[in-house]
Design goal:
Blueprint: H1 3-26, H2 35-54, H3 63-100, H4 103-114, H5 121-138, E1 144-145, E2 148-149, H6 155-189, H7 193-218, H8 231-258, H9 261-268, H10 271-283, H11 289-306
Antiparallel strand pairs: 1-2
């Protein structure tokens, strides 16, 4: 792998590590259902600026490619991210990011089937480490999340944590299956990374606000009126869209345009390391020894798969 590819993959990981922290900050004063609508503004406006600065040409869109893009965005960035956001809300950014980052395992096998990429022995080693890491995390007692002392005797807390794990794994499934198709869409659509993510931002804002309209009509009690949202909350969600969806997406797209998806994805999944550090030192999210070991195994597994 060229040095620039490795560094850009790490830059992607940093973007994807900072984004959940920003979402966690915002969710202190708002619910998880308010995250995506505000993020969509940050995503779209950032992509418009990038298109203008780089002199990007408006991409041509064929019907087949558009349908594939809608399916990809709907199942990964909308559904996958919504599961991810609910997971962060329940178990904190550190564990949610770590558990959801088993998606390279899924991406690797999908890439093998769809893009005919090869699986090396180190990828198998990384796969085992990832699975062990998740087992250790999900079976470890204790830890403090959202100010609640986790205890085996506290059935509600245990149920909350297990639900958070299940949501994070659901997000991982959405990400893992859909990630290889980002490259497929670039190839079939004839789009460069900036064009692709500009189109993704347009599809995303339409899907997210359509869902918001449906929720407002059918289940308004789960929503928080935007006029009651504090400016700090709004800008935290907005920044998450700029950093995670726009910049992280562009960096990732540039990498997979010339490098195998099965190589780039595991490097970008090193984001739990950054997220855990930020969560620990700035937001006081505490993990038990076993949970730290599990996070470490996930990170080692991601590194192993990338070698």
């Amino acid at each position: 792998m060229p040095v620039w590819g490795f560094l850009l993959s790490l830059a992607t990981a940093v973007c994807w590590a900072v984004s959940p922290i920003l979402m966690k900050v915002g969710m202190r004063r708002a619910g998880p259902n308010e995250v995506n609508p505000i993020r969509s503004f940050g995503f779209l406006l950032t992509m418009i600026v990038v298109m203008l600065v780089t002199g990007g040409v408006m991409p041509q869109v064929r019907i087949a490619a558009l349908l594939g893009l809608i399916l990809n965005v709907g199942t990964s960035t909308v559904l996958g991210d919504q599961l991810y956001i609910y997971s962060i809300n329940k178990i904190g950014a550190s564990l949610a990011v770590s558990v959801s980052n088993v998606y390279p395992l899924i991406t690797t096998f999908v890439s093998l089937l769809v893009l005919n990429e090869t699986i090396t022995p180190l990828i198998w080693v990384g796969t085992v480490l990832l699975i062990l890491g998740i087992i250790v995390i999900t079976h470890s007692p204790g830890g403090k999340h959202k100010g609640v002392e986790m205890s085996r005797k506290d059935k509600y807390a245990v149920r909350t944590v297990l639900t958070g794990f299940a949501l994070a794994l659901g997000a991982a499934l959405c990400y893992g299956v859909n990630t290889p198709f980002v490259k497929v869409l670039m190839i079939q659509g004839g789009w460069n990374p900036i064009q692709l993510y500009f189109l993704r931002s347009l599809v995303y804002i339409v899907l997210v606000w359509s869902l918001r309209g449906f929720e407002n009509l059918r289940i308004p009690h789960i929503l928080m009126p935007f006029h009651k949202m504090r400016p700090k909350t709004f800008w935290a969600f907005f920044a998450a869209g700029c950093v995670g969806l726009a910049l992280g997406g562009i960096f990732f797209g540039v990498c997979i345009e010339v490098l195998p998806v099965s190589v780039v994805t595991p490097i970008t999944s090193s984001s739990p390391f950054v997220t855990v550090l930020i969560s620990r030192f700035f937001y006081r999210e505490k993990l038990t020894k076993l949970q730290n070991i599990g996070v470490g195994l996930v990170i080692l597994g991601s590194i192993s798969v990338s070698l």
